Amino acid sequence: MAVEVRLKELLGGNTMDAAPELVVQEENGDIRCVACGHRCLIREDKAGICRVRFNRKGVLRVPGGYVAGLQIDPIEKKPFFHAFPGREALSFGMLGCDFHCGYCQNWVTSQALRDDAAVVLPKVCDATELVALGTRHRTPVVVSTYNEPLITSEWAVQVFEKARAAGMVCGYVSNGNATPEVLSFLRPFVDLYKVDLKGFNDKNYRKLGGVLKNVCDTIERLKAMGFWVEIVTLVVPGFNDSPEELRHMGEFLAGISPDIPWHVTAFHPDYKMTEPPRTTIHELERAYDAGKEAGLHFVYPGNLPGLVGDRESTYCPSCHTLLIRRRGFLVLENRMKGNGCAKCGAAIPGVWEEHAPKQSAGDGYPRAVRL
Amino acid sequence: MAYIVAEPCIRCKYVDCVEICPVMCFHEGANCLVIDPDECIDCGACVDQCPVNAIFPEESLPEKWREFVEINARFSKEWPVITHKQVPLPTADEYKSVENKRALLDPTPGAGDV
């Protein structure tokens, strides 16, 4: 508890008024926050489910002016496979989450306000400093990630406004528990949006703190609004890997667009979910097959680099020519011509550079950076 | 795991909790509320709204109220959903600090508002 109090005090100074677009005034000084799908009714002196957005004297205060995670990642780690391949993304996170997934791999930041064992001290900074860091390291992309970015959307937009002015493209790595209001708020600044589809069983979704329908609605809405969308499903043995559930996810995504890349990634025991075993190669291949059989053009098994044959690579859906050869987060070879297949010329869905690097400049690992 | 409404709610039913719930999982009986464990998303937002501290995560429910796990599961399937704040029961102040109220639980459904 002492840690939580210290952290809250520390963060209390790094807040700002919520964007009016994300607030609905209710009776008696109550506020409804619409930054995420919980749509919390927040009474005076109380916080929302995320514990970082709170009602102070009838005004919704939200986080800003700090980062709790900051590094330069290969963009393939986000993962975006169809945006700026081989390039790096300045990646920042804050604290808190509106879910409480037992297998969270970023729990030291996402659960910092719920769990005393999760302690990462935030670093105070402003948006200009962050963007200058990206400029200095020549990252074409900046991404809000590590914790749930929806609950800190005002800060993300502050950073993204400056990043776009500096020529960068901006992205969200999110659980997809969004609202139409927050997506409209983000759309002018965000082009890349990754959603975790954590399964297709509502009862299981609720154990993680969410509702399946909200996430499905978000995915549909993101595509309709013209975001570039990639989906990740962490395949957890015994939790979401039944043939039916994998098929339903694949069919749902293919029904929205067969061009949505679906990353099916291997689970390792983490945080409070330590009982299921690691996902095997065979299980991951089953998930891959389910996506392909559902009609998806691009399915990528993740987290087992070099162990899944050629499935980490991108092939032209029209002529099946190898376009981007990958291992893990590393682009080994990019044969695309602009936004199309070098052989048949078919347009490949994604966000491509005219003159993309032929291979990753880095070694496929994150780089620590300092402000 | 879900959150559980336990014995202190009986004959009080302050109903401060229901508007906070993001998934409308409170159900109304004649003299207390319950949470549907299949709908609850474990967010815990309701806990500190209750003036009589009747709501607990299942894993830290006091042992003497363990029966309320089953009571919540059963009556949430029989009682209607309630989502809006209402006036507490007229007996609320009288019963808010009374213990051992289990026998007073009325299985009759409340009015609900959905």
Account of the protein in words:
The complex is a heterodimer of chains A (371) and B (114). Chain A has 371 residues and is an alpha/beta fold. Chain A contains nine helices and 20 strands. The radius of gyration of chain A is 20 Å and the shape is globular. With 114 residues, chain B is largely without helices or strands. Chain B is 11% helix and 11% strand. Chain B has helices at residues 67-75, 92-95, and strands at 3-5, 26-28, 33-35, 55-57. In chain B, strands 1-4 form a two-stranded antiparallel ribbon. Chain A binds chain B through residues 37-41, 43, 46, 48-49, 100, 203, 206-207, 209-211, and chain B through 1, 19-20, 22-23, 38-45, 48-49.
How many distinct beta strands of chain A?
20
Oligomer: heterodimer
Q: What is the string of helix and strand elements of chain B? A: EEEEHH
Order of helices and strands of chain A: HEEEEEEEEEHEHEHEHEHHEHEHEEEEE
Number of helices of chain A: 9
What does the main sheet of chain A amount to?
9 strands, mixed
Shape of chain A: globular
Report strand order across the widest sheet of chain B. 1-4
Structural category of chain B: little secondary structure
Strand content of chain A: 15-25%
Please give the share of residues in helix of chain B: 10-25%
N- to C-terminal distance of chain B:
25 Å
Query: On the 0-100 scale, what is the average pLDDT of chain B?
Result: 96
The whole-angstrom Rg of chain A is: 20 Å
| Separate helix tally of chain B | 2
Strand order across the largest sheet of chain A: 16-15-14-13-12-11-9-8-20
Arithmetic mean pLDDT of chain A? 93
